[in-house]
Amino acid sequence: METIKQALLTNWHLMRWIRLVIGIALGIHAFQSRDAASGIVASFILFQVITNTGCCGTNGCDLPNVKKKQ
Question: What are phi and psi for residue 15, nearest 5 degrees?
């Protein structure tokens, strides 16, 4: 539980703030216009804000190479 709280409250950089503003604005627009497609996009962007993920920058979508020991 502590790691979830730590992930939500730390590492707030400019791109994360921009995604938050865009997600909220798009969510408001989706609610007002009753547009499901905008709501889905807003949900996806807000999910990126909550989890602090995204494809911005070099190797943004690259997964770390972690090998499991057997």
Answer: -65, -35
Unique residue bearing structure tokens 């996009």: 41
CA-CA distance, 37 to 31, in Å (whole number)?
Answer: 11
For 1, other C-beta atoms within 10 Å of its C-beta total: 5
Buried-state track 11-40, b at ≥16 Cβ within 10 A, e below 16 = eeeeebeebbebbeebbeebeeeeeeebbe
The pLDDT of 12-40, averaged and rounded, is 92
The whole model's pTM is what? Answer: 0.69
| The pair of three-digit structure tokens given for residue 33, joined into one six-digit string | 């216009």
User: Encoding tokens for residue 57?
Assistant: 């920058």
- The CA-based angle 54-56-57, given to 5 degrees, is 135
Q: Is the dihedral of CA 24, 25, 28, 29 positive or negative?
A: negative
